[in-house]
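Good morning,

Both structures are done.
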Amino acid sequence: MRYALYSGCIVQTEQYGCELSVREVLPRLGVELINWDGKSCCGYHYYSVTHPLVWTYLTARNLGQTEQLGLDILTLCNKCYYSFCENQAKLERDEFLKDLINQILSIEEIIYNGKQEIFHLLDVLYDSIGIDKINKNIVKPFKNLKLASHPGCYAFRPSELRRPNDSENPTKLEKLIRALGAETYTYAEKLDCCGSSISVTNEEESLMIAGSKLIAVKNRGFDGLVTVCPLCFRIFDGKQHAIYNLIGDERVNIPVFYYTQLLGLTMDISPEKLGLHLNQSPVEEIISSVINN
C-alpha cells in the first residue's frame, strides 16, 4: 500500500495532530506514505465559487504530479477529497476543459490524464488496511468508553460522486471505533454539519451549530467525539472555548479526537507523537485511562 500523501492546507498550517498521528499510525499498519515536491493548495476555499477554472487547474495540477509518480493519492481533508473527486469527474465529462487545463499544465511539463484513484482516509483505514489488521495491532483497547462518530459532510455527500461511505447511513467510522474496544452507536444528530463552512461569513451562527452538535453528543451519553476531518476538528476542538462563551452551556466541553490519535493510543504510541498535547478540548482523562490500562 503506497500513496502520495496530500495533507491539505489546514493540516499543514494548524491541524498538526492530524498529520502527526497519520504518519505515526499508518506506516505501522503497512502503509507507505510518499511525499512529493511542488504540491499546492487544491483551490477549493479560494476559487471554487469565484474562479472555478483556477480551482480545476490547481486540483488537476496536484493529480497530474502524483500520476507522473505512478501513485494514487491519499487526502486527509474532507474538502480536499471532494475537490479532487469533483474536478476529476468534471474533467472526465468535458474534453474541451481537459484539453484547456493540459495546455496550462504543459508550462510545467505536467500532464493530467485522470487515471489514478483518489483515496479518503476512511478508504485506507477501513477498506485497504481493514478491521482485522487494526485489531491485531491493538495492545491497549479502550474499556467502558462511549464515543460518538462524526464523519463530516464531505466524507459522504454529495452522493453522486464516489464517496468513501454510504450517503444515507455512513457506518465505517463507527466500525473503526468499535475496533478500538470502545462502544458507539448511531444517533439522530450524527449527520449534522459542524458549521465550519459558514465560519468566515457568520462566525456566531457557525459556533451555535457546532455547540448544538456537542450538546447532542453529551445528551446521548457519549464520553467523547471522534472525527477524521480537520475542518470539523478545528471547530469542535479548537473553538470549544468560544462556543462555551457564546452558549454558556458546560455540556459543550467534550473531548474531541482524530480517529488516528485514538488508534495510536491503543497501539501504545506516546500521546506526544500523536499530537494529543495540541488538542484543546479536555482529553486528558481519556488519555490517562489508556496509558494506565
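Second structure follows.
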Amino acid sequence: MKIRMISHSGRYPQYETPGSAGMDIRAWLDEPVVIPPGKRALIPTGLFMEIPAGYEVQLRARSGLAVRHGICLANGIGTVDSDYRGEVKVALINLGEEDFTVEDGDRIAQMVVCGYVQAEVEPAETLSRSERGSGGFGSTGV
C-alpha cells in the first residue's frame, strides 16, 4: 500500500507492537484543536493513500483515548475506500465531560487494512428460511 505524507511529524503510520492489528495515525495541525464535550471535530492527518483494489482502510478509535477521555470516532468506524485519493481525516467526537485538546502529532486513531468482497444484489420476493428466522436484538439469550 502506498502512502504519501505531507505532515510535519515525518512519522508514517506504524504498528506499535508485533501483534498489533492497527497502525496508529497522527494529527497534522498548525495549531491545537479543542473539542468541547458533546462536540465533533474533523482532524487532518496529512496522509494520502493508494489502497489496493479489494481492500479498505478502517479507521477506529484508540481505546486509551476512549476510556480515559471519551474520545471516539463520530462515525463509529470510518472507511477509506481503495479509489479515494484525498487526505485522510478523522472525525472525532468528545463523549467525555471536559474539553479535549488535540495537538499536532498526537496519535488520534488507528487504521486497520481489511479485505472485502463486493456482493451482487439479487432482488427477491422471498427469502429462504433459517433456524434463527427474524430473531434479533438479544433473541439468542443473555
